[in-house]
Every structure is written in structure tokens, then in C-alpha cells.
Write a structure and sequence with these properties.
By secondary structure, the protein is α+β, with helices and mostly antiparallel strands. The protein is built from 25 helices and 30 strands. Strands 1, 2, 3, 4, 20, 21, 28, 29 and 30 form a nine-stranded antiparallel β-sheet that branches. Strands 5, 6, 13, 14, 15, 16, 17, 18 and 19 form a nine-stranded antiparallel β-sheet that branches.
Length: about 850
């Protein structure tokens, strides 16, 4: 025990040793970030591909399957999922945790590039990106004002968004509810046919007449001049003057066959805050950045932006996820302080000496503050896991000091001088202190090396607890002996407080002696009691509810609404307003932030409402009670919705995917059989109760018009299928033909048929397709329209069709639900070629249970 002896002889050394750690800890605290959970990186990559105007079946066949076949050859894939919906293919490639996400993302890019030639020529270039679980928006800023939505969108996009994107730590800013400026060229199919023109002639004219090319240079003996061909139009009105064709001296301008409008993009997204229309800016942080620090920086910049807003404009924060993080960290820190205080009080009650209590209590703040040095050098943040480790360690931080003090005090009672008592007492007990500390470390160190997602979350927990108890051992073997030698004194006269507690402790000791004596005389009974206790504990443990994450009252939740397929954005808007009016009548509701078409899939029949509540101390009903009440009210209100969900705000989310408490996938070869299994399982779960918001990922019944090409007639007329599809897609879906620049900004120029010519399926007969011979062929001669229904989305997992069941829990634990769902699946005969398994939070629950066992 050389360290203790040196500390007793050299008190300044002991003070400087521990004091330096405390000072470095105090310096580290303001440099640590605040977060809800430790930084966990999932090696997951997404591939997003847009094929404008394509049906889900086409996207699956032409895009998703081609990409899956190429990507599936990469080593280390855990799960390969794909979602094929209207115009969009979204692939999720999840790798085993030991692989580098950056390296695997590059391998996916190489595989996608290798099959680029096998994909349809009209697709937009596939976007390969790493998935960051922290990429969900941390802030939603709502901009409203007494102007048109186009002006508001322009101001948000050109003035506010760039300023927010320049903030350090901000990854991206996405607009929702906006309608950007577009030059719309509305084709009149009747006038176009009257001039014997096709949409290809219009597109060719735009690309021919609205162009700017470098012209080279002119060199003179004195100067060199760069030559530019200024062929781009300088105002939107000039588009109408473009010459489409000249025949026999007669010129046909674009204004003769179309209406040119300096207008807005089609309305496909809407956002509201407390019933007021506006434009929302969703702020995402950069990967690895601290949530609270970025949110604070954004709020500070918003304060500066508000000073420059035009009169009547209003900008408010509609959603702030850092609010709950601050609250959670503050609560844990307060609990940590109370734990330290109560530990000191308990020490005082048993040692009954103020000096010994103060010396022992010094170990708690010294060890806690010194632990933050390890936080800083390991790159940890102040999160619920690290602070929970410190809270758990509070009682253990004082153990070593108490053992040393008690033994030193015993030597002092024998009449030994303080310095000699401190040296002898520490030497006798030092090895036991080291053994006890290392025993505690043996419990926490393995936690830091758990595998899987659970290990990633608990790594910081195990390391922080280990560092804290090691620091407490250092304090107990250096600072504590020195303080005992300098300040500890054996009391010769005991106070009344001491004598009262001593009498109680004496009776407690006498009772313990009797119990101990009985136990030594009846050893087999003690062993039997221990075995019975262990067996009873195992039996009780099986009945304890199991969950991956604790359900907390965070004063916020989400509402998801889905109207029947084919619903318009106006119908979705009316349903949202009805629910908003209901929520505004609740005294517990502070704000309601609504978006339509704001997700990656941009579905106009789906809406999301973020409901912010007042703090739980200011309301009578809990968040869970309000969510259960709202589920009942949605049914009673008679909203025209097909599905809905009232769920917690996800702590970890992924783009294009829902995050519910229950997520189970049925995988197999036949989509019809999968749908039958999924519907049967859904019905069984609804009958058993304890579940809420049960929905399926597979949706069918979407109204659609299938244009079947008459191959023989098209071949006789010389019209290829590509030409037919391109014409239909341009006129009905709208095609970005070129771009228009004004004052340094670029705007899309979109060609589309006038709205009144696409509000009735029978008006497809007005469209014409140009044959290679130059003749215009009516579309009705080339295709046969069939009105029917089709799927909204097609999911695949590991190259097989899949249907996912989503749901939340209501009065049932996740572990109980997991066992019940798998048992029900076996009862329904799901097996063999068809597989039922958990994904998302449900899959993580299984990993958690396995890690704990």
C-alpha cells in the first residue's frame, strides 16, 4: 500500500492527484454533448430510385428486382428489404454490425453502377446513401404570413433555408407544405391535334430554342474574348413566342397550342400549425453531431432571422426533439444528486460522526466529477445510459472509503496516533478494497462487450460504471487515508444522538447474532432456503414483463391517418382539420403540427399529426391516457379514414419506414397466400385484445387505369411502346422539359396536359402519338384502357415477397405479445416456405433478452 503511505506523508501530493482529476472533470463537463442515447451506428444503406409515372408492379420488376440481384452478392448482408410504390423504389440493405457502414455503402454504389445499363433509361440516377438513425428531423420550423403560398415558399427556400444550412452541425433542411415556383406549359390536346403536332414536337422546340452553349473564344493581339451563345429566354412570358414548327411559311408558336403560366408546382404536400397554413422547414443534424447543441444553434439563428422578417410574417418552432432530451437528462442528473445526498445521510446515521461522514462523502463528488475526464477522452456524451451508470455507481463510490475509514477509526480507538492509524488501517484493508473494486469491475466490464445492438447501447454504461468505481478506489487509497490522518479524531465522549442510535444498533446486532447462530446450527435448512429463493426468483422472473424500451410520458405523440386509396389531397385535408378541431379542445394540448404528403413516399392520402402536450405536472391525464382516449374518439368522430394509429414519437427512425412497437413480417413466394396469412393473424390479434393500431403494409384496391398496348396495331403503324409510354407520361404525369433562370435562381419548366383534359378517363382519346412516318395516331388506336385496381406498395425481404404487420401495445408487454404472436402464427400454419419473424423494435427485444440471459 505504497500509495496510501505516500499520500499520508505527502498530503499535497494526494490533494493534487485527486484535485487534478476533479479539475479536468470540471473542464470536460461543458465540452460534453447532451443526447438521449449513446451514439449507435447501424451499417445500413439505402438505394432510392425514381421512375416517374411507373406502377408498383413495374417498379418492382424493372428496378427493385434488378438492384436486389446485384446487391445480394455483397458479403455480410443481414437483411435486404425493398419497397416498390408509385414511381419509387426504396431498398434497405442492413449489414452485420461488425462491418463498416462507409465501406459497405461504397460496395453498394459499385454494384448499382454495374447494373445501371439494365435499368430503364427514364429513371433518375439511383441515390445510394448510408442510413443514420439520428437523421430524423430534430426541429420543425413553421413559417406563416399574409402572402400567397408561392411567395411564402419562395421566401422559405431562398432566404431562410440557406441560413439554417450554414449552421455548423446542420445536415439538411427539407421543406414540407411548400409549392415552389414553376413555369407550367399547359398543353391543349385539341389545338395540338389541330396543328398536326405531337407533344414530342413541343419538347423538341423547348430543347432547341431555350439553350445556352459555349461558343469558344476569339483571340486578338491585345485580348482574348470568351464567346457565349445567349439562347436562353430571359423572361417567362417569352416562352409563348417559341416557334414549334414552320410549315409553308406559317409559323406555329408555343402559345398557339399551349398556355404558358408562371405558376406553382402541383399541390402534393400541405403543412399546418394549430390550424394555420404555412411552410415547414424540417432540420436534420449531421451524422455524429449532438442533438441539443445543434438545436441550440438553430434556435439562436432563428432569433436573428426573426429580426429580418417582413411585417406580418411569423416563424415558430413547431417541433423540438431536444426538449425531451434536456428534460430526461435533467431528471437523471437530479436523481443522481439526490442519490449522493441520501448516501451521505445513510453514512452519517451509521458512522454517527460528522468528520467521518464528510471524509467518506468526499469520495462521491470526487469520483463522479473525475469520471467526466473519461467521458471526454472516450468521446462519450451525457445521455441516459452514462448518467444511469453514474447513478447506479453512487452507492458503490462510497463503499471503499467507508471500509478504510472504519478500519482507521478502529485503530484510533485503540489509542494509536492518527498518522499511524491511517497507515496501518489502510494497509490491513487495502487488499480487500482492491479485491472488492475489481469484483465490481468484473460485473460491469462484460456489459461493455455485449454483442449486437444491445451491446452498442450498453457499451458506455459498462465503461462509465467501471471508470467510476476505479476512481473511487484511487480516492479511497490516497485522499481518504490522508484526510483520516489529518482530520479524523476518535470521540471519547459520545453525544446523545450517538447513544440513542447505538442502543438500536446493539439490539440489531444481537438479533443478527441469534439468526446467525441458528443458521450455523441448521446449515442444510439455510442451503435449502437459498435454493428455494433462487428457484422462486427464476419463476417470478418469467412473469416480469419484458420490453425493449420503457414507455415514458414525453408530453408528445404522433397521430397517423390513412384515407382510402385514391383519395384526393382535399379529402385528406378535411379529415385532418376535423381531428385538429378535436385536439384543440383538449386543455392538455399545447400545439398540433400537421403534414400531408410529407414523407419519403409523398402519399397524399396519408397525414401525420405531431401533438405536443403541456408538461405532465400541469395536466391530470397522462400521455398514455390521452392516446387511448384519442383512439376511441377517432372511431366516434366518424373520420373517413381507412387506417389510423396513435403512437409514440420514435426515438430512432429510418427514412421511408414506420416505427411502431410491434413489427412482424410474413415472407413467402405467393402474395395472395401472404395476404391471407396476414389478414388471419391480424384478425386473431384484434380478437385477443391488448393491441392497438394494427395495420398491414400491403394495400390493394388502388383505382387505376391499365393501358394495354395493342401490339399488332402499334407494329402496323410503326409506333414503338416506348413512344406511347413517353407521350402518356409527359402529358398526364408532367415532364420537366428544361429549366428557367432568373436573378441567379433556377426554376423547372414542366410540360403537362391542361387539368380539364385529365379529369375523365374517356378524355384519353384526345391524346395523339406521332408515328415514325410522321402521321399522328390517336391513342385509342394503340391502347385498350381497362379500369381496375392494383397494389399501392409491394414489399420484399431477402428477395421474396413480404407483408409487414404494424401495431402498438395497449395494456400488454412486448415480451408477452412476442410469444403470443409467434404462437398464433404456428396455429395458423405459417411455416415451411412462409416465415413469420420480428423486425425493428420487436427484433431488438429478442436481442435484448438474449444478451441479458
Amino acid at each position: 500500500m505504497k500509495l496510501a503511505e505516500i499520500s499520508i506523508r505527502r498530503p499535497v501530493f494526494a490533494v493534487m492527484l485527486i484535485g487534478s482529476l476533479v479539475v479536468f472533470g470540471l473542464i470536460s463537463i461543458p465540452r460534453l454533448g447532451l443526447d438521449l442515447f449513446p451514439r449507435v451506428e447501424f451499417p445500413m444503406v439505402t438505394v432510392t430510385t425514381v421512375l416517374e409515372g411507373a406502377a408498383p408492379e413495374t417498379v418492382e420488376r424493372e428496378v427493385s428486382q434488378v438492384l436486389e440481384e446485384s446487391i445480394n452478392t455483397i458479403e455480410g448482408i443481414h437483411t435486404l428489404r425493398s419497397v416498390s410504390s408509385d414511381s419509387l423504389s426504396l431498398l434497405f440493405v442492413e449489414f452485420e454490425l461488425e462491418y463498416s457502414a462507409q465501406q459497405k455503402a461504397q460496395e453498394v454504389r459499385d454494384k448499382v453502377a454495374a447494373v445501371r445499363g439494365d435499368l430503364p433509361r427514364d429513371i433518375e440516377p439511383p441515390v445510394v446513401d448510408r442510413v443514420d438513425p439520428d437523421a430524423a428531423p430534430i426541429l420543425a420550423v413553421m413559417l406563416a404570413g399574409p402572402v400567397s403560398i408561392r411567395t411564402l415558399s419562395e421566401f422559405a427556400d431562398k432566404r431562410i433555408k440557406p441560413r439554417l444550412e450554414r449552421i455548423p452541425g446542420v445536415g439538411s433542411v427539407r421543406l414540407v407544405g411548400h409549392r415552389p415556383r414553376e413555369i407550367r406549359i399547359w398543353i391543349d390536346p385539341i389545338r395540338l391535334a389541330g396543328y398536326a403536332l405531337s407533344v414530342d414536337d413541343v419538347l423538341a422546340a423547348l430543347q432547341r430554342e431555350h439553350v445556352e452553349l459555349p461558343g469558344g473564344r476569339i483571340e486578338t493581339p491585345q485580348h482574348e474574348y470568351a464567346v457565349k451563345t445567349k439562347g436562353k429566354l430571359e423572361s417567362a412570358e417569352l416562352f409563348g413566342n417559341i416557334v414549334v414548327v414552320e410549315r409553308a411559311g406559317r409559323v406555329v408558336h408555343l402559345r398557339d397550342v399551349a398556355t404558358v403560366e408562371d405558376g406553382m408546382a402541383e399541390e402534393r404536400t400541405i403543412s399546418y400549425l394549430n390550424g394555420r397554413r404555412g411552410v415547414a422547414l424540417l432540420v436534420r443534424r449531421q451524422s455524429g453531431e449532438n442533438t441539443v447543441a445543434v438545436a441550440d444553434a438553430v434556435r439562436a439563428e432563428l432569433g436573428e432571422i426573426r429580426k429580418d422578417l417582413p411585417p406580418g410574417y411569423e416563424m415558430v418552432v413547431a417541433m423540438d426533439l431536444s426538449r425531451f432530451i434536456r428534460s430526461a437528462i435533467r431528471d437523471v442528473a437530479v436523481d443522481l444528486a439526490w442519490g449522493a445526498l441520501f448516501a451521505s445521510v445513510v453514512v452519517l446515521l451509521f458512522l454517527r460522526n460528522v468528520r467521518t461522514t464528510v471524509i467518506a462523502a468526499i469520495a462521491i463528488p470526487s469520483s463522479l466529477v473525475a469520471s467526466f475526464v473519461f467521458f471526454y477522452f472516450f468521446g462519450f456524451t451525457l445521455n441516459t445510459m452514462t448518467l444511469m451508470a453514474l447513478s447506479l455507481s453512487v452507492g458503490m463510490l462510497i463503499d471503499d472509503a467507508i471500509v478504510v475509514i472504519e478500519n482507521v477509526y478502529r485503530h484510533m480507538e485503540r489509542g494509536e496516533p492518527p498518522a499511524e492509524a491511517a497507515s496501518r488501517g489502510t494497509a490491513e484493508i487495502g487488499l480487500a478494497v482492491v479485491a472488492t473494486t475489481l469484483g465490481v469491475c468484473a460485473v460491469f466490464v462484460p456489459i461493455a462487450f455485449l454483442r449486437g445492438v444491445v451491446g452498442r447501447f450498453f457499451r458506455e454504461f459498462g465503461l462509465v460504471a467501471t471508470c467510476a468505481v476505479l476512481t473511487s478506489m484511487l480516492v479511497a487509497l490516497s485522499l481518504t487515508p490522508m484526510l483520516c490522518a489529518r482530520f479524523l479524531r476518535a470521540d471519547k465522549e459520545q453525544s446523545l444522538f450517538f447513544r440513542i442510535l447505538e442502543a438500536g444498533y446493539a439490539r440489531l446486532e444481537a438479533g443478527y447474532r441469534r439468526v446467525l447462530a441458528w443458521g450455523l446450527r441448521h446449515r442444510w435448512a439455510v442451503v435449502a432456503l437459498a435454493v428455494a429463493s433462487m428457484a422462486g426468483g427464476v419463476a417470478v422472473a418469467r412473469m416480469i414483463p419484458i420490453d425493449f424500451l420503457l414507455v415514458e410520458d414525453r408530453s408528445e405523440f404522433n397521430v397517423w391517418l390513412k384515407l382510402p386509396l385514391g383519395s384526393t389531397i382535399e379529402q385528406t385535408h378535411r379529415a385532418v382539420r376535423m381531428l385538429e378541431d378535436e385536439l384543440q379542445g383538449y386543455p392538455e394540448v399545447r400545439a398540433v403540427f400537421s403534414t400531408i404528403g410529407g414523407g419519403v413516399k409523398k402519399r397524399i392520402n396519408e397525414a401525420s399529426l405531431y401533438v405536443q402536450l403541456v408538461h405532465k405536472s400541469q395536466r391530470r391525464r397522462s400521455q398514455m391516457q390521452l392516446m387511448a382516449h384519442l383512439r376511441r374518439r377517432i372511431r366516434e368522430l366518424g373520420l373517413p379514414v381507412e387506417d389510423y394509429a396513435v403512437e409514440e414519437v420514435p426515438l430512432i427512425s429510418f427514412p421511408g419506414a414506420r416505427s411502431t412497437q410491434l413489427m412482424y413480417t410474413i415472407r413467402g413466394p405467393s402474395i395472395e397466400q401472404l395476404h391471407l396469412y396476414a389478414q388471419s393473424l391480424l384478425s386473431r390479434l384484434q380478437e385477443r385484445g391488448g393491441y392497438a393500431d394494427l395495420t398491414l403494409s400491403y394495400e390493394t384496391g388502388k383505382p387505376e387505369i391499365a393501358l394495354e398496348i395493342a401490339r399488332e396495331r402499334a407494329a402496323d403503324l410503326g409506333v414503338p411502346a416506348l413512344q406511347i409510354g413517353r407521350t402518356i407520361a409527359t402529358l398526364l404525369a408532367g415532364l420537366k422539359a428544361t429549366s428557367y433562370e432568373e436573378k441567379g435562381e433556377r426554376y423547372d419548366v414542366r410540360v403537362q396536359v391542361r387539368p380539364e383534359f385529365r379529369d375523365d378517363p374517356s378524355k384519353l382519346d384526345l391524346l395523339r402519338v406521332r408515328a415514325p412516318s410522321g402521321a399522328l395516331v390517336p391513342l385509342r388506336n394503340l391502347v385498350t384502357p381497362r379500369v381496375g385496381t392494383g397494389p399501392m406498395e409491394i414489399d420484399r425481404e431477402n428477395r421474396a415477397r413480404a407483408i409487414t404487420i404494424y401495431g402498438n401495445l395497449q395494456g400488454k408487454s412486448a415480451g408477452e405479445a412476442d410469444r403470443e404472436i409467434l404462437a398464433t402464427g404456428r396455429e395458423l400454419g405459417i411455416g415451411g416456405e412462409y416465415d413469420l419473424h420480428a423486425i425493428g423494435p420487436s427484433e431488438r427485444l429478442g436481442e435484448t433478452v438474449g444478451a441479458v440471459r
